[in-house]
Amino acid sequence: MSKTIDELVKPPKESHCNFTSAIFSPDGKKIVTTGEDKTARIWDAESGKELQRLKELHRLEGHTLGVRFASFSSDGMKILTLGLDNTVRIWETESGRELHRFGGIESEPATNDKMNE
């Protein structure tokens, strides 16, 4: 029987709000989730414990709007995030450190209305 994201991930009180995506790491040991709270978070898939929040070191968050999607690299060492702020970011999985930022993508921020067109 498969588990729901709520069964796999046990957010703390000041929780991740409105999940937008969730994906397993290549080895199945971690889950990365994204949400409207401007963060991507890494969780232990077995215990549901939060392991890491992906954020800039000098700011409270990385993306300035919600994070729409995340994906692990094939070796699980990096995570790519796509934000509603029209940035793509690459993070180091273990440290949560932002490695690269690609901004100025020539499009409007995605919204649910635009996604459904």
Overview features:
117 residues, single chain, Methylamine Dehydrogenase, Chain H, 8 strands, mainly beta, 38% strand
Instruction: Give the topology string: H per helix, E per strand.
Output: HEEEEEEEEH
CATH architecture: 7 Propeller
The main β sheet shows up as:
4 strands, antiparallel
Helix and strand composition category: mainly beta
Q: What name is given to the CATH topology?
A: Methylamine Dehydrogenase, Chain H
Total of helices: 2
Number of domains: 1
The average pLDDT value, as a whole number, equals 76
Give an overview of the whole structure.
The structure is a single chain. The longest helix has 4 residues, at 5-8. The N and C termini lie far apart (34 Å). The protein has one domain (5-115): Methylamine Dehydrogenase, Chain H (7 Propeller), CATH 2.130.10.10. The strands form 2 sheets. The chain has a 4-stranded antiparallel sheet, with no helix packed on it. Strands 5-6-7-8 form a 4-stranded antiparallel sheet, with no helix packed on it. It is mainly beta and 117 residues long. The chain contains 2 helices and 8 strands; from the N terminus they run αββββββββα. The model is unreliable at 56-61 and 107-117 (pLDDT under 50).
Q: What layout of secondary structure does this protein have?
A:
Blueprint (H helix, E strand, L loop, with lengths): L4 H4 L10 E6 L5 E6 L4 E5 L5 E5 L12 E6 L5 E6 L4 E5 L5 E5 L9 H4 L2
Antiparallel strand pairs: 1-2, 2-3, 3-4, 5-6, 6-7, 7-8
